[in-house]
Design a protein that fits this description.
- The protein has 432 residues and is of the alpha/beta class.
- Helix content is 43%, strand content 11%.
- The chain has 15 helices and 10 strands.
- Helix 2 links the parallel strand 1 and strand 2.
- Helix 2 packs across helix 3, helix 5 packs across helix 6 and helix 8 packs across helix 11.
Length: 432
């Protein structure tokens, strides 16, 4: 599986317009839809868990690394995705979850976590120690970040059943305090080549100092900012004509590609352009649960309009949950960005995704899907909330139509990431 990623890096570095999609989500319907699409397109797929979603304490999903892999493998087997097409990644693996405490305590927890990730079978490992702990700056410099990353890389190598299978991703594009910065033209500033070079050099020094210089060829990805971002209510699209010159930084690193986070909500033509710029790893997450929410709310609106709803409206259930436990959205949404209720339900940061696993939400959605599954749902009715392509895809998918619509809606958001497999390369200037 690691060789799949290394082959992809070689192809991208040779100038081929190709990339692999990393789906960062723990939502079962999002995972199922993603696995089904990868199966249908006969393409490999990376499924990533983040350190706050999945860790030795269970994260907010209640799953440890081995639990997460077992869950995804069961879903993959159920939909018929070959095991060889499934790659597991760990995203932002570092001390962030415990950064309220001392660096020593947070790093001790991070070592336990990354060992569990490696033991469980995660092979794409993003080493991210960029955020400061108690008494430290919010964003750390390259030297400290790289030293801590090398520390964790050594732990992963010692814990992995097959250390050679590990592929490390270094660097981060976590925005500075206050959010990503726009330049004078209103565009998100890309990482500078000088900064990217400094990150690579710092990690080379740190790997040598940690006694794991032999593992340097296993560094396969460098996270940088190409100029894509989204705020609560606005998407910053990639400036298509701009080349920040980041691929040239890798000329002495033949086994390394660029990785882009925050590619959510970008127009379809952005993804092949990112591949041209050297980005072989493309991350997506909130946009997929945003599509899930859009489908659920659309079905709920139809049920309410027709008087078919048996129980409270889903948006009312979700609003009560978010107000009862505001910790997942407070600090991400602010009144200066608009109405807080609008942001809770429709914000692009999609903080509502933290509340779908709550029993009240699960019960409301199960009641909605079960109730609508017993109804005739003609296309003219569905067309009030779903575009024709989604309706057609759901009909072709078979099974209960409400569930198929949810999966097809998620797939409609994910499909542009597989432009090279579909044979339909978006043109610059095409509409999303």
């Amino acid at each position: 599986m690691a060789e799949t990623l290394r082959d992809l890096i070689r192809r991208n570095r040779a100038g081929e317009s190709v990339a692999i999609t990393s789906v960062c989500s723990a939502h079962r319907d999002v995972l199922r839809a993603s696995l089904m699409l990868a199966r249908d397109l006969a393409q490999p797929l990376v499924i990533e868990a983040t350190s706050n979603q999945v860790n030795q304490d269970g994260g907010y999903t209640g799953q440890r690394p081995a639990d997460f892999i077992a869950t995804v493998r069961r879903l993959a087997a159920k939909v018929g995705l070959p095991p060889a097409h499934l790659i597991f990644g760990g995203d932002h693996l570092g001390p962030q979850v415990w950064r309220a405490g001392s660096a020593e305590a947070a790093m001790a927890k991070a070592r336990v976590m990354i060992a569990e990730y490696a033991q469980a079978g995660f092979t794409k490992i993003h080493l991210d120690c960029s955020e400061g702990c108690a008494g430290e700056p919010a964003q750390l410099g390259d030297a400290v970040t790289a030293a801590r990353a090398a520390d964790l890389a050594a732990v992963a190598l010692n814990a992995a059943p097959d250390p050679a299978a590990l592929l490390f991703v270094i660097g981060t594009e976590v925005p500075p305090p206050g959010g990503a910065r726009a330049d004078e033209g209103g565009e998100i500033a890309a990482t500078t080549p000088a900064s990217a070079r400094a990150t690579l050099a710092a990690h080379a020094r740190a790997f040598h100092a940690a006694g794991i210089a032999a593992a340097m060829p296993q560094i396969g990805g460098l996270v940088v900012q190409p100029g894509v971002e989204f705020s609560p209510m606005h998407v910053h699209a990639l400036p298509m004509a701009r080349d920040p010159g980041l691929a040239a930084v890798l000329k002495d690193w033949p086994g390394v590609c660029l990785e882009a986070h925050s590619t959510d909500y970008q127009p379809p033509q952005v993804f092949p352009r990112l591949a041209e710029l050297g980005f072989a790893f493309l991350k997506v997450g909130p946009a997929l649960t945003f599509a899930y929410r859009r489908a659920i709310y659309g079905l709920d609106a139809l049920a309410g309009q027709m008087g078919w709803r048996d129980g409270p409206a889903v948006p009312l259930v979700m609003e009560a949950l978010m107000l009862d436990a505001p910790g997942h959205w407070q600090g991400h949404y602010h009144s200066g960005s608009g109405d807080l209720k609008v942001q809770r339900h429709f914000g692009l940061a999609d903080r509502i995704r933290y509340y779908w696993p709550r029993p009240e939400a699960v019960a409301a959605i199960d009641a909605l899907i079960t109730g609508l599954s017993a109804r005739d749902l003609p296309d003219p009715m569905l067309a009030q909330v779903f575009v024709p392509d989604v309706i057609a895809a759901a009909r072709a998918m078979g099974g209960a139509m409400p569930q198929a619509l949810v999966l097809a809606e998620v797939q409609s958001t994910l499909r542009p990431y597989f432009w090279f497999a579909s044979g339909n390369v978006p043109r610059q200037g095409a509409q999303s």
